[in-house]
């Protein structure tokens, strides 16, 4: 299906309660132990109404693992494009 998307059931948005989600991408910002990490192009289910993004468990785990490694390396600010593991 493309760039790490996992076929997911379309869901009703939990934030606005009006829109439905569709496959798309988002930018995720993580902060931990003095590190600010921005990851662009993250595959997500995105609400068509309010643009709230929902990242699946596999992608979230990859992002957290990557942020942990960056924090351990001593990075303070890191900006990267999402790449599937």
From TrEMBL:
NCBIfam families listed in its UniProt record: YgiT_finger
InterPro entries: Znf_MqsA-type
Biological classification of the source: Archaea, Methanobacteriati, Methanobacteriota, Stenosarchaea group, Methanomicrobia
The name this protein goes by in its record: Zinc finger, YgiT-type
């Amino acid at each position: 299906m493309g760039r790490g998307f996992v076929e997911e059931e379309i869901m009703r948005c939990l934030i606005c309660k009006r829109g439905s989600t569709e496959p798309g991408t988002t930018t995720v910002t993580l902060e931990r132990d003095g590190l600010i990490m921005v990851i662009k192009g993250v595959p997500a289910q995105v609400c068509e109404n309010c643009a709230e993004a929902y990242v699946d468990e596999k992608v979230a785990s990859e992002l957290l693992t990557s942020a942990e490694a960056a924090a351990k390396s001593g990075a303070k600010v890191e900006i990267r494009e999402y790449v599937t593991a």
